[in-house]
Amino acid sequence: MMRILAIxxxxxxxxxxxxxxxxxxxxxxxxxxxxAVAPAVMKNFTESVSTVDPGDAVLTIHxxxxxxxxxxxxxxxxxxxxxxxxxxxxxxxxxxxxxxVMVVKQTLAKTYPDLLALAGAAEKxxxxxxxxxxxxxxxxxxxxxxxxxRRRLEKESSTVSxxxxxxxxxxxxxxxxxxKLRRILxxxxxxxSPEKKALQIAMDIRERAARGEDLDQLQQKAYKDxxxxxxxxxxxxxxxxxxxxxxxxxxxxFLLRAGEISKVKKEAYSYVIYKVESKSTPPRQRVREEIVxxxxxxxxxxxxxxxxxxxRAELNEKYFGAPAEP
Length: 326
Known about the structure:
Layout: H1 2-21, H2 38-50, E1 57-62, E2 80-84, H3 85-95, H4 102-125, H5 131-157, H6 162-171, H7 173-176, E3 178-187, H8 195-210, H9 215-225, E4 236-240, H10 247-255, E5 265-266, E6 270-280, H11 288-308, H12 317-320
Antiparallel strand pairs: 1-2, 3-4, 3-6, 5-6
Helix pairs in contact: 1-3, 1-4, 5-11, 6-11, 8-9
């Protein structure tokens, strides 16, 4: 009986999942405690759950006969299906992974009986032997196997050793290098000044910055010389890595030593002058989680490629049409 019930659970899991996807968790729901009372309520809830054994029934559905039951002469209302805690939690993991909060459990408990009744009626009508059902179950089988295997690969890929972290850190030191950066920004085109004038002002400002003048004051002067009445942007742009700058700018900026000024850079809409205040490489421990994420990603991509890398699909253009332009 337990195996047949498990098969029924899997058969309706997708439908239940779709129903739960429509469920929102209200902030003020009595089963979803506020932050002020959450610790006490969740402690009591956890203690009450811990007293329920895996084999204890947590949901009893009256009026639905299990496959091994035959209704009494009085009718199917004398039947009952008892869902054990272990079975119910297995269903929760399938249809609502990571959402084991009370309101979701209650929604599932209310939704499941109707679906189980409809599934039983469908079996009596012969739908479970129809081509449509068999095709659907085959698709669910393939998708479920693929999803479960991908989850296994994700779990395996997330196991990262300290040696791997240390090796990645040493091999990618330049990736983590940081500069504390300031800049002067001059719009290239405006109604007040043509681009040629903006470039000349930028060149003059750059020379003054190289002589040690304050960048915020130079930024204000540049805006005033360009005819702008608004407040000029602050020169401090914080700490950046190579990936935080445009590729054509990053290389030159990271070649500068602390205190040096870049040449005037022509960017999309502006002329920009950069000053490197300081350069540093963060210690390994500070970027450890970032490294773990990257190694995990690389491992997963490699694992997936080992499975799907040689797969090639040919589409019949008479049926699917010409492939879309990339």
